[in-house]
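# nightly structure sweep
# worker-07 picked up a monomer target from the shared queue
# config: single-sequence mode, recycle default, output format = structure tokens
# input follows
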Amino acid sequence: MRRFVFKLRSGSYILEVDDPCVNRHDGKAKVAYRFERVTDDGQTGKDVIFDNDDVGCSPMHEPESDESVRAIIGFLSLRKGDTDAEFFDDYTPRQLKWRDEGDPEQLSLYACDPPLEDDDLRALEVDSHPAL
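# output follows
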């Protein structure tokens, strides 16, 4: 499992990415992920925005690779106009709030490949939950 901390304008967020060692129906390796906002008092697990394993990584990359993490960030940062409106049909009210009021545009900068000079994913990776 890899864990990243993103400090955005609206607060701090944790993204966990894991390889469940299972393939999807199309043969791509599944990638499990969890994206949550860290509460103002530093707690996790109380404001989970996304928690799923519906992403399939490219066969060219490992499920926990930087490339797969960037792809997940790309999906998490989609906004109105970035894709078909139907994409958001199954979003929960919390996910819609993130899309409309969170920092998806700022998060999307981390999906760049190669990463922006000061936005290297390894610099954001943590072994355990840090004191935020």
